[in-house]
Amino acid sequence: MIETGTVKSVCDICSRGCGVLIDIENGVPVKVSGDPNCATNQGKLCIKGLASLDYLNHPDRLKHPLKRIGKRGEGKWQSISWDEALDEIAGAMLKAKGEFGAESVAFMHGAAKGYRDSYPARLANVFGTPNVAWQGHVCAVPRALGAQFTFGTPMPCDFDHPPACVVVWGANYAKTLHYQYNRLTRAANKGCKIIVVDPQKIALVDKSAIWLRVRPGADLALALGMINIIINEEMYDKAFVESSTVGFEQLKDRVQHYTPDKVSEITWIPAEYIRQATRLFATMKPACIILGNGIDQGVNSFQTARAAAILNAITGNIDVSGGLIRPTPMPLVRRKSADLELWDKLPEDMWPKRVSANLNLLPSIRYMAGQSIIKAIVDEKPYSIKVLYAQGCNPLLTYGNANETYEALNKVNFLAVADLFMTPTAALADVVLPAAGYLEYDSVEAAQPQQKVAKVGQCRSDYQMISALAAKLGLSEHFWDSEEDCLNFLLKPSGLTFNQLRQMDRVPPKTQTKKQSGFPTPSGKIELYSERLGQWGYDPVPAYHEQPETPYSDPELAIEYPLVLTSWKASPYRHGGGRQIERLRKQRPEPLITINSDTANKLGIGNGDWVYIENKRGMIKQKAVLSSDIDPRVVIADYGWWFPEKGSVDLYGWSESNINILTDNSPPYSPEMGSCNLRGILCKVYKA
Ligand code: SF4
Questions:
Q1: Do 368 and 231 reside in the same domain of the chain?
Q2: Would you say the CB of residue 32 lies under 6 angstroms from ligand 1?
Q3: Residue 352 half-sphere exposure toward CB, CA atoms < 13 A
């Protein structure tokens, strides 16, 4: 660590890889700013990144390991040494393994945070359990695999050569990805036509040519309706479809069911708007569709991503500047890869025993759907999970059906949680480990060096915790002698060491627009129809399925609960994180629910009133914001709310405003991914 100067690093409060410059004075970081030389964020940071030092210096940071000495959730803790803490956890794991088998031990980690997501999986595999969960099935993985099963490879949009038209679908970049928002607004100012698909009038709508106000959960019907129009009005790229795709006839047959009028009924978007938007997208070149988390959370998650990929393909916006491209990133050990996670070390008979086995998810999926772990603890089926290690996650706030999650976390024999702060989930733990933030350890993130510039208490990086736990379990030969050796392993394909990387200039942007021949799919072409998916029992061409608890799938329920509920993420927070950071909390001090003004008037609700949001699973409270822009039948609530200031007595108010009190974690799930239906469910709202 240097005494005085500026250190180049990368923010990983979320996984976007924004380059930062950290000013150090007398060994203390005094300022974190965006690095203008980073191609990703070009000098800008979002409000979370700007609060990096607030995270670092917050008085409530956990600073040493804690052992629970009272009842679960009572808030009575004893400070213990790292040695004692790791002995406790390793002892519980070995005891469970001896009595119930290694599969009775499970790991979970939080939202994507780069390589550190793989360390628990590496330990799990060498320990012998297949049960490693995260929430990828409701965030990002459906989008990634939907593209993978269509193109055979990820194909991001080329913003270095701005498109003439962009469809921004279920992504509120003004709040979640500041640099993407800046790119889009710059493109719009230069004449790019933006089409927004979102139930909410997001900031980008002001820059858009058309806003399609889709009913939450009905996105796939819209995508199929757009394909219908493009094919029936012969706006597709015939030469490209002929030369580079398979399955056009099956696709054409499938989408005949999705006429603009029928799709209008399903999506609540006027048919004429659907036609206008589709014609704009199909005729402006180059164009692309970018998807956000709005499409990830329901039975149609993966197939919505497939349909969007198909829209990009049949309009010929593939391998062209300003369309979808195949980037050539710096060669590194891939995140979540077999090499890094040592999949081959898991005993052969263990993978079939995983708790998600009955879901028959896509064979390439290595995660457990989070709800499978929760249900295994509660129902003891297919067997009971006895020990849970949770790294940087707060499932009490972020998993569907929070009441069942609460039951599980109370029931599990032993719970260890590693985090920066005490959280409602950590408050239920047996042992809590103090985690280091991104300024406190070296790492490689987004092909850039993340550099240690500070130390807080006895906090450790996730690698240090997991490798030390491995040593206690007698598994240290599967980890490296030092964290730097681990980083050198990750960098090996690039020919660099970590020390060389930290001295380099920023990695250049990874665009590549050269035409490539063929696609890495089984047919060698873009798969509009996927033989593989059909053989495995999934829809080979996307088909829309109405999810449970909507006005159409359950009209009886809609009599009592007439409003359709969805959620969004406010910019100061990442999932459940950040509520104790004053600078962030000032931006959004309370949980808010947006309601149509006419609907609110009929319900006697005024702007700023606290309201109850209720459905058959429970009731929460948020503050009403009235809007004339939202559909009168839809409400949009805040996600991830708890109240650190309320203290541990009632678990920091974990259930008061937590939207997952209202969501479900039961089937039907997306058949390919296991995604739960977290959006578009029925509720009622009334004044508190
Ligand atoms: S988007 Fe914000 S939180 Fe995420 S890496 Fe960039 S600055 Fe950090």
A1: no
A2: no
A3: 2
Arithmetic mean of pLDDT, 627-640: 98
Is the domain of 570 the same as that of 682? yes
Q: Domain residues for 478?
A: 66-138+337-439+457-502
Q: Is the CB of 162 under 6 A from ligand 1?
A: no
The tokens describing 455, both together, are: 């130390």
Structure tokens of 587? 């931006």
* Dihedral angle computed from the Cα positions of residues 128, 131, 132 and 136, in that order, rounded to the nearest 10 degrees: 150
CB 578 less than 6 A from any atom of ligand 1: no
Residues across the chain: 688
- Compute the distance from residue 114 Cα to the ligand 1 centre, in Å: 13
d(CA 296, CA 368): 16
Question: For ligand 1, is residue 613 a contact (CB within 6 Å)?
Answer: no
- What ligand 1 atom has the least distance to the C-alpha of 45? 7
Residue 578, classed as helix, strand or coil, is coil
pLDDT confidence of residue 15 = 84
From residue 392, how far is each of 160, 461, 470 by CA, in Å?
Answer: 34, 11, 18
Give the CATH number for residue 296. 3.40.228.10
pTM score, two decimals?
0.96
CA of 639 to the centre of ligand 1 (A): 19
Assign 446 a pLDDT band (cuts: 50, 70, 90).
Answer: confident
Q: Which of 12, 33, 38, 45 to mutate to test the pocket of ligand 1 (most atoms within 8 A of CB)?
A: 45
Confidence of residue 513 (pLDDT cuts 50, 70, 90): low
Residue 485 has pLDDT above 70, yes or no: yes
Contact yes or no for 414/387 (Cβ under 8 A): yes
Per-residue pLDDT, 114: 85
Residue 174 above 80 pLDDT? yes
User: Sign of the C-alpha dihedral, residues 177, 526, 188, 569?
Assistant: negative
Read off the pLDDT of residues 453-481 as tens digits, 9 standing for 90 and up.
Answer: 999 999 999 999 999 999 999 999 999 99
Residues 574 and 432 in one domain: no
Under the banding of pLDDT at 50, 70 and 90, the label for residue 511 is: low
Q: What is the total count of domains within the chain?
A: 3
